[in-house]
Amino acid sequence: MAENILYLTELLGLKVYDLKRRVLGRVRDAALVPVVHPVRIERILLSGGGGYTWVSVRYDQIESITLDGIYLSDEHLIPYHEDEYVLRLVRDLLDQQIIDAQGRKVVRVTDITFDIRREALRDVLHVLEVDIGVRSVFRRLVQGVLPRRIVRKLQHYIPVNSIRWELCNILEPDPQRRLRLNIDLTLLEEMHPADLADIVEELSPEDREAIFEAIDTEAAAEALSEMEPDIQAQIIESLETEKAADILEEMDPDEAADVLSELGKETSEEILEEMEGEPKAEVEELLEYDDDTAGGMMNTAFVAVHEDGTVADALEALRRQQELADTLNTIFLTDLDERLKAALPVARVFLSRPTRKLSELVQDDVIKVPVKEKANRIIELFDKYNLLTLPVVDEEGRMAGVVTADDIISVLRQH
Amino acid sequence: MQLLRRLKYHILIFFSVIGPGFITAMVDNDAGGIFTYSQAGAKYGYLPLWTLAPITLLLIVTQEMGSRMGAVTGKGLSDLIREEFGLRTTFLMMAVLVLANLTNVMANFAGIASALEMFHVSRFISVPIAAIGVWLLIVKGTYERVEKVFLFATALYVCYIFSGILVKPDWKEAAINSVKPVLMFDEGYLTMLIGMVGTSVAPWMQFYLQAAVVEKGITAKDYAESRIEVIVGCIAMSVIAFFIIVACAGAIHTVKPRDITDATDAAKGLAPFGQYAVLLFCAGLFNASIFAACIQPLSTAYTVCEGMGFESGVNKRFSEAPIFYWLFTLLIVIGAGVVLLPDFPLVKMILMSQVLNGALLPFVLIFMILLINKERLMKKWKNSTMFNVVGWLSVILMIGLTSALVLLSIRDIMSNH
Q: SMART domains in the record, alphabetically (chain A) (predicted)?
């Protein structure tokens, strides 16, 4: 290993020498100020003599950093006092959980690796990576028992397991502090919602709340739909009513309704009150149905066209429903009273001339279920007819919603 | 109407949080526990029954703190120890925990072997099958499913109740002794009392309970129900212990007081009272042993990996969480393997587990009280002064009694070589 590497746990306890090579104290913590520099150690905190007061050394007051000690170039040190902008590595990171954005998992920080750089006649520490593996565990266990150089030699036999600093996301349960630390949340927002959901499920409720308060509503809604119902309910309950309502508005109405039905009556009413527009109406409608019936499983977002329409009309209807494009596979034909008449695979519509009448493309009888149909029966239908989408109709035969294959998978997984 | 609806709501919540506290308290009656209670009844009859009330109280106090911490912080005990007290403390604790639990696992596989030998099943068949079964259940099952199996297993403890009833003990005598403390300054009697308390609160339980509360997603809000669950679980555990003692008191002590050497010895003692009493007693022992043999290795692997920051979880693949799976597998393989070795000093190992459990428990309890008093972690749910007094007193009492147990066990290990 290169000599310009230093570990946080080696830094701790290092003696700090003044200009006359007298010991000033020992290192107790190192701090980053993310708003000033994302990776440079800005301050080193010392405790001197046997006293309890700490002093703080600015990075530009250090001349050199070695395994034998830290030598200063300036002795004008100031007493340390709490500072909200500061991220203290020992207090805030060592032994705590952080998110490895690339590995998409939650890890525990066992050590932190620095790079010692020579910059304008002084040594500066830059945070390189966070150590999480067996090697860092070994290092910490034997440190102080064996001489540092021997520890370094021995650890070579154990593979490294670490994460680049840029790919870590630091959680700060106290929301005010997190914002001031200006920690970059884009890595989390860019993750696949299912991965983010996995991560969030591994965290404590406080940390979950911190993430959901911070990331944007859309990412939050997507991640939330991937979670287990009880955790969904927990998270929504922990958030401000307004934020919770915003997130639920972004979710598919059937999923939002499921979440609300998991909550206590009062809480769910409060949140529903706060919701707005179309999502609210749809969710309210869905809440009327039992969980294990077609009504409870269905989604109210679907594309329906009048049965006398043409392929061009259908394509126009699809264009207006761009949000559905990812999962949509069926177009429904209805009469003037919105009664379901037929179903058409989207592909068949696409492959036909724009002027053709939709009713001419219909091949099979439409398979549909009433809103009160039981979940078991619906699963049977999906299996028997290899369905991707199943329309649900109300007492008058009007389109109420659709059950899709992913709803079926969720139901099956819970059984 | 309003009241009725509220009641219904609370009952619903109670059943949705039932699991962790109940299971943990019941696993407390593992092979070692059953042996201790059987011995108490066989040797001293109904006399030791009064200890069950204070034992229940101690159990409630410690379990309540663990489940409260789990519900409020959403973190396991080993997580919190790591975060608040650092890696080295955690590592030492985990090392002792693994050793102690390994001996616990051995004791439970021994329990499986001897219970099934009463049904004429050779241990060379029963133990490997049980080990593989346990491994598969945990590795292939989901938490919800495994918990259902566990809850079913707790129901099987009813065996002991029936077994106790079949023996037709002297209920009046049992009732009187349940509330009338009798202290005798007889060395054997004191040793037995200490043993009874010592087996009731084990270090691994505290880790398991808190982790299970977290896993179940119980939050501070549903905590009131969780607390009731813990209390109900602890009482249920004592009821079972009561029937074990009563069965052995009625069947063995009243006939001819004597020392029994293991739990099946106790079962044999029930023979004059009918085949069913024996069968039920053995079925109970088998159930308890296999139940504990499932939970202990699993909980150990989880605890260690969480504390040390290694990947864990039965929903991960072997390659994703190698340390977790290796640890879990090794605990089962070694725990089951030694039971098959001829001349393995099993009794000595079980005494060893008392020593290790006893050595670890004070630290676990002290860390728990320190953690539960941290405002930053527990907010308004930290211990009240009253609870702290009770908590510390329990801790001191447990420490005193377990240190005594440790010394006695060491003495036995020395003298039995």
A: CBS, MgtE_N
**Do A138 and A216 reside in the same domain of the chain?**
no
Using a CB–CB cutoff of 8 Å, tell me whether A95 touches chain B: yes
Residues A11 and A160 in one domain: yes
Please determine, for residue B14, whether its predicted confidence score (pLDDT) is greater than 60.
no
Q: Could you tell me if A148 and A202 lie in one domain?
A: no
Please tell me whether residues A154 and A202 are part of one structural domain.
Answer: no
**A141 touches B: beta carbon within 8 Å:** yes
- Which two tokens mark B86? 């650092």
More confident residue, B169 or A21: A21
Domain assignment present for residue A172? The answer is: no
Same domain for A207 and A148, yes or no, is no
**Nearest in space to B116 (alpha carbons), one of B339, B348, B269:** B339
Q: Is residue A296 part of a domain?
A: no
What is the share, in percent, of chain A residues with pLDDT greater than 70?
Answer: 94
Beta bridge partners of A330: A345
What is the pLDDT at residue A1? Answer: 42
A327 contacts chain B (CB < 8 A): no
A177 lies in some domain: no
Are A258 and A229 a contacting pair, CB within 8 Å? yes
Query: Is the CB of residue A63 less than 8 Å from the CB of residue A123?
Result: yes
Q: Beta partners for A115?
A: A5, A126
Look at residue A130 and give its three-state secondary structure: strand
Q: Compute the nearest-CA separation of A370 from chain B (Å).
A: 30
Number of domains in chain A: 3
Return d(Cα B288, Cα B23) in angstroms, integer.
Answer: 11
Domain boundary among A288, A319, A347: A288
Residue A19 structural domain: 5-164
CA of B188: how far to CAs of B39, B161, B250, B408, in Å?
Answer: 11, 27, 20, 11
Give the residue on B whose Cα is nearest the Cα of A98: B309
Q: Are residues A97 and A156 in the same domain?
A: yes
CA distance A131 to chain B (A): 11
Residues in chain B: 417
Three-state DSSP state, A415: coil
Give the tokens for residue A95: 């032994």
> Averaged over A166-191, what is the pLDDT?
68
Contact state of A204 with B75 under an 8 Å Cβ cutoff: yes
Residue B190 CA to residue B240 CA, distance in Å, equals 22
The C-alpha atoms of residue B349 and residue A116 are separated, in whole angstroms, by 51
Highest mean pLDDT among A251-265, A281-295, B44-58: B44-58
Domains of chain B: 18-378+385-411 (1.20.1740.10)
User: What's the pLDDT band for A179 if we cut at 50, 70, 90?
Assistant: very low
Main-chain dihedrals φ then ψ at residue B410, nearest 5 degrees: -65, -40
CATH number at residue A358: 3.10.580.10
- The beta strand positions in A198-320, using DSSP E, are 304-306
Question: ∠ at Cα A98 (A92, A101), nearest 5°?
Answer: 140
Residue of A nearest to B309 (CA): A108
For strands A62-66 and A69-72, give the pairing.
antiparallel
Chain A residues within 8 A of B219 when measuring between CB atoms: 205, 234
List, in sequence order, every residue forming a beta bridge with A334; answer none if it has no partner: A306, A340
- Pairing verdict, β A168-169 and A97-100: antiparallel
Q: To probe the interface with A, which of B5, B310, B317, B374 has the most A CB atoms within 10 Å?
A: B310
The residue type at B75: K
Q: Of B363, B99, B305, B92, which is closest to residue A141 (Cα–Cα)?
A: B92
A-to-B residue pairs, Cβ atoms closer than 8 angstroms: 41
